[in-house]
């Protein structure tokens, strides 16, 4: 017996049920076997079930995959490895009559973590039969049942299972063209439950049933409805139904009408919830409305005379729902609104109401349009909200005078920890006033001033403020006009910032002179975790100085140096340093002229990058001549999850070398080879190795040298290949 075999491939061999049965009997004796593949062999219904039962016959089998009823792959693990079983029977014409027998097979194992029955013939009745049997095992299991002819009635059966079964944790349904139906069971009983429904085209009576089911789901923590044909009235009926004894509940609705519904109308909808509101999110750009609520044992509160008078005032103004909203927002800590255009009436109503939200800590008004009158209302309220901790007004249209008013409103915010004023138009005068206000914020930890037109002239003042910001952890000054004169001033501040964790100075017109000065200041930034210097012309000289101090930056996890005019010599310096920086997880060197010499040096340095999870080498002039060191380098990084090699000149030789190392990359999820020179021959080699690569989700191959016909055939054979942009 060939006990040393690691791979067996039976293709185009007519294996009937008896032959499959005999084959399965021998598998436990093949101790070195890693993969058994059977291609182009039409299996009977019984043959598919025999293959499904194989993990009960051989304890080393960790995955059974049968596709299109004729291609089967059985993956094996070493005996000492922990066993998690995945059973994928895709497009195998499995129907309701097969479910009971399949369920008996599945119930024999307590190691099942995934069951994929996509593209079969279950229908609503087959789904209900499956749901009756699978939860009995009380194991963690993700069940996928997409493309099975399941209607809205079947979707409600899934929701009912989520409500009914104590160990059902999540249901995710999308009825769009890329259909998704999934339910997750967990080992423990009564987990937090999540429900996500998209494009289910529910009719009125089905929405009524859905609301009734939600009312029974006392463990629901997260509900999201996307484009399910729900009207504002339907949303109100749905959102007021769920209640629970204690805990949090987040409810989101994404429908086209959210984009055009008045702000007052959406706040009225929020007031319909049963719990105490803790967060209201409105994003016009994605038509998203979210309300988060907290349920707690009722505690009687004495209402102040001032609050009662304010409610009477609101009722007199014709907004009778607002007192109800104010009462429910006693615990509101977050307002997160995007692309909301406030009328003067709405601004006055909403911003004045903020004074009655005593727990408000976070205010986000991104991409909003606020009139001068609205800004007056907002700043007037902010000036009295002394306990607020996080303000984000980025990308909002507030005008030059509005920026000045917002800066004035920061005075006295002694609890403020985070400010994001990105994309607001600061003139030097308003920038200097802002810096003056920042110096009086003792707890400030995060400062985002990107795309503000900040020039080098204000940097000396900013640097003095940063020196005294003893709690500062994150600074984002990207896409400004700091240049060399400004970066030298910032460098003096960085020298004294002992707990700085993140700094982003991308796209600031910094040359090698300024870059070297700044890098020297980083020598004692021992807690720095993220460094972004992309799109500055810092050159190889700066990178050489950076390489010298990198080994002492033991906390650094992210390093972005894309489009920095780094040549192969600069990369060589960096590569040597990387060999002493195993903690780096994210590295971007895109849009630099690395070429063969740089790739060879980088490959040697990556050998010690034990924590690297993402590497970007987009548009680096890499050709097939560097294919071997490239594959060798990334192949050494056992934790890599994403490799970006797009917009290079990689051909079939590179595809071949990458294909060789893919099976050993156990964590890899995404391989981006867009816009290269790979032909169908190279892709074929990748396809041959992908059965070994269970974790890979996507191999991107847009704009390579492959015909449309071949793209279609390859996609059908291996759905993880993506040929579109």
Summed up, what is this model?
This protein has 725 residues and is α/β, with parallel strands linked by helices.
Description:
It is a single chain. The chain is α/β, with parallel strands linked by helices and 725 residues long. Among the domains are: 93 residues; 113 residues, Alpha-Beta Horseshoe (Leucine-rich repeat, LRR (right-handed beta-alpha superhelix)). It has 26 helices and 31 strands. The protein has a 29-stranded mixed β-sheet. Strands 16-18 form a two-stranded parallel sheet. Helix 24 links the parallel strand 28 and strand 29. Helix 6 packs parallel to helix 7, helix 14 packs parallel to helix 15 and helix 18 packs parallel to helix 19. It starts with 6 loop residues before the first strand and ends with a strand. About 3% of the residues have low confidence.
List keywords for this structure.
26 helices, 725 residues, alpha/beta, two-stranded parallel ribbon, Leucine-rich repeat, LRR (right-handed beta-alpha superhelix)
Which fold name is given in CATH as the topology of one domain? Leucine-rich repeat, LRR (right-handed beta-alpha superhelix)
Low-confidence runs: 299-317
* Overall CATH class of one domain: Alpha Beta
Number of strands: 31
Instruction: Count up the helices.
Output: 26
CATH superfamily of one domain: Ribonuclease Inhibitor
Overall shape: it is flat
Report the sheet-strand fraction.
15-25%
Separation of the first and last Cα atoms: 49 Å
Mean pLDDT: 91
The oligomerization state is: single chain
Give the name of the CATH architecture of one domain.
Alpha-Beta Horseshoe
| Gyration radius, rounded | 30 Å
* Proportion in helices: 25-40%
Decide which structural class fits the backbone: alpha/beta
Largest sheet entry: 29 strands, mixed
